[in-house]
Amino acid sequence: MAHGPAKGIGRWVFTxxxxxxxxxxxxFSFAMFLLGGFFAMVIRAELFEPGMQxxxxxxxxxxxxxxxxxxxxxxxxxxxxxxxxxxxxxxIGAPDMALPRMNNLSFWILPFAFLMxxxxxxxxGGAPNFGWTFYAPLSTTYAPDSVxxxxxxxxxxxxxSIMGSxxxxxxxxxxxxxxxxxxxxxxxxxxxxxxxxxxxxxxPVLAGAxxxxxxxxxxxxxxxxxxxxxxxxxxxxxxxxxxHPEVYIIILPAFGVISHIIPAFSRKPLFGYSSMVYATASxxxxxxxxxxxxxxxxGMPVGGELYFxxxxxxxxxxxAAKVFNWATTMFRGSISFETPMLxxxxxxxxxxxxxxxxxxxxxxxxxxxxxxxxxxxxxFHYVMxxxxxxxxSAAVYYWLPKWCGRMYNETMGKVQFWISFIGFNIAFxxxxxxxxxxxxxxxxxxxxxxxxxxxxxxxxxxxxxxSQLLLLFNVIRTIKAGTPVSEPKTWEGAEGLEWTVxxxxxxxxxxxxxxxx
Amino acid sequence: xxxxxxxLLLIKLLGGAVGMFLFALFVMPPLYDMFCEVTGIxxxxxxxxxxxxxxxxxxxxxxxQFVATNNxxxxxxxxxxxxxxxxxxxxxxxxxFFARNNTHRDMVAQAIPNVTPFNAAEFFHKTECFxxxxxxxxxxxxxxxxxxxxxxxxxxxxxxxxxxxxxxxDITSRADDSLAKAN
Amino acid sequence: xxxRARMLFALVLAPVMSMAFMGKALAEDAQRWAVxxxxxxxxxxxxxxxxxxxIFWICVVxxxxxxxxxxxxxxxxxxxxxxxxxxFHENTTAEIVWTVIPAxxxxxxxxxxxxxxxxxxxxxxxxMDIKVTGYQWKWQYEYLGExxxxxxxxxxxxxxxxxxxxxxxxxxxxxxxxxxxxxKTKVRFxxxxxxxxxxxxxxxxxxxxxxxxxxxxxxxxxIDEPGIYRGECAELCGKGHAFMPIVINVLEKExxxxxxxDKKAKVAAxxxxxxxxxxxxxxxxxxxxxxxxxxxSCHGGNGEGIPGVFPALKGSAIATGDVAGHLxxxxxxxxxxxxxxxxxxxxEVDLAAIITYERNAWGNSTGDLVQPIDVLxxxxxx
Lengths: 517, 183, 382
Hints:
The complex is a heterotrimer. Chain A is mainly α. Chain A contains 15 helices and two strands. Chain A has a single domain (14-500), classed as Up-down Bundle (Cytochrome C Oxidase, Chain A), CATH 1.20.210. Chain A has helices spanning 9-14, 18-46, 57-92, 100-119, 147-174, 187-218, 232-266, 273-286, 302-314, 316-330, 339-362, 364-370, 374-404, 410-437, 451-481, and strands at residues 406-407, 483-484. The longest helix of chain A has 36 residues, at 57-92. Chain A is globular and about 65 Å long. In chain B, 19% of the residues lie in helices and 35% in strands. Chain B is built from one helix and nine strands.
């Protein structure tokens, strides 16, 4: 049964192998990342100076919308599914995912969905232009014709996520090697297990929201239309009931990655394993009951605002515990600074800054000034780019040798890190200032007092964009011509079952489960 | 065993996913409406009110203001005949809104009420309101639309001004549906 | 820097920077490079500023603490320095301490935050009410109980936006009519939306509230100092989201009362003006100005519209055909499209001028004159 991979394009279309499917997800998400990044470059080029130089406001709104949709649904979510596919079976000593054929389907519907979404740019009336949060009635009564394709794409992508999550839950609960109890599982597996439950719970709610939209637009219902007895605010409740857990869905696997890399390069076990598990579970639970902090200005009664403010502030407690645990893992370790570790340390610092601005945003009276301004844009780019995305860069450098049997060039890795780090901060730190000074988000043009920081931010964005092309270069160069490595435990401080198999990992691993003590 | 553990888990999780979808589609909207109705949050007022013999509280005066808004591309003239009245809680009061269809076509409108502050909404009762029904007006026709309301005696003492606002929507194209729910 | 590098700098970077700075030099110097929220001119804006700074400094202190520990480790516990890793990975006391202390800190933060929020919500006992309606893409202000209402639209010319004219000091922040308010008066704002969700934000007043169609929100401000305060729409509402600013002119109470009386007289005079007969030249001049303010953003300064999105008026059937049809669509709008009912937004004089202008500009040579009295009669169904 255990033979090598098939040949040709058929291999990739029909594969049920978790490593192949992981590779497909990783390349797909990288392509989406570059597409979403291109949209960002258009945005920052237009915002380089006041006035409309490059695009019209209508097209600018399509760029901001598509940038958000492609990055959230096409890049950052699939990349973590790719990492899950590659690593979870090996980490738990399983031969593959629990449902290998559903795994194949989960992947292959994604390129179809995003091809359809990208094609809306060329349709009459243009691509979706109502923001990635697509509030009604801008996204219903006032939407371009492409909105139906947008809804279809969201349904498909949602189905992919749900199937992928079911697969992960089934794999983790049923296929662990004997002896690997839940509290012996690696952190990446724990965080993905919890994330998968979140996904199964809330992705269908997003499907519900877009179905209600579809019905309002095409079948004369009035879920979100006050004329027929509905309410635009209902849309926001349903959307954010999905939307808040969604951002934790994005960050929890990132926490998992960091919890592998920091111990590895500190040569010291993760500090406080069980509290890390409990903290992750608390964050996941709390994420369900704080959604309306995205809606503080919609006209909520003061009691509701106070509740959501307090509940949101509470999330700082388990999150801070995790940060303290990472710092304590490093403390009195024996630390080396290879590229994965640089990204991981930058994650801890920059994600913490993003967490602080998140706490500031939770303060409802202050949110009167922050809401829908660039302060929010700065916050979520700190947690999603310097947070989730940096952890993916860390993961790629960390696990690439295991995937392809070649080591990346350490100098080039460090160069790519530093340019990323510097570019990112130049791009996004000034956006805090812009928001505080009064610049709203999703603005195609701005008054003159916002010119200076906008120019700085755009320059930083171009630098950051270039650094991601360098990442692509580094990855391809490594795969084609990197120094071969064959040590199973490629990194001195790395621990886990994945570091007991050969490097590169054979097509089939753990056909016989290992013994876990 | 008859069903493998993974197959059973798959069924449970798929069931959960479908359940959450149906929850979003069929439970969340009515739950939201019910919550708004019971608490008055969002300024939504209730349906026709049955008057009870609680009497009038003459020790208190509440200012009630009236505001009218036309939704996009709703071209009727629509305004309150009086901007504000001072009433006693428990005392039924009648006011009217003026509406005129200035166009050359017959149209149907729906008025959607909203009360602010929100904590007053559940204490503002309408015994007769043009917002309970669809409003047809022929081309050039005008009408005085009546409203009879009572401010509940239990209105929190801190509230001294209530603003009732109507948004007028053009529902000519959907007037045959029974979508205009009583509010 | 080498000679070649210096030349490269001069050739590339300097012209780019100076081009950019030309526009920016006109912005008020105090506002450039701003890094913080304004304290503002109301008790609420000050309360918000204060809580913002308290939370900010707490975060800075905690951040410095945590990062200091990390940087210390990165220095002192380096493998290259010979550090040998310890093996500890549990400490329940530490875990409890760094769970309880942050929780207590949050409670400390929540107290002033709660009091500030109750302030934001305290709309009772206001002295006057202003109704604010968000339109695509302008604001309408109505002085409730005073029979004064007007539109407030961006007046920055297209040439400045599309870079064929230099940008003025208040680029994208000037409007046809500012909202005029009295200082030291509790003003209540009733905020709603006409079409999609907008949001009314004036940072220096510490006010922001969503403008939602079908629902009226309320907020308030007590403005301590006279002055001009500018704000922005803060909820994506379509292509004009960045082009519908807010300008508030706050006057001392006596000046405000004088303005109010003057305005009421002007409103009455405008009604009288609607009975006057205008010449073609007068209508065309006023029409061109009103058109560029209220119609050009969709139908184009040249009447050519945006194909597939907003119809052209140049050579259109409506603008060259039956006058009644033209009056109907401008006054009553067109249901199911983005064409608004301007009858409720503009005066009879402006409407007459715009329709006359559209019928006689860009080669549409109908020769038709539409007088304000024609508009009034049409509105009254005659």
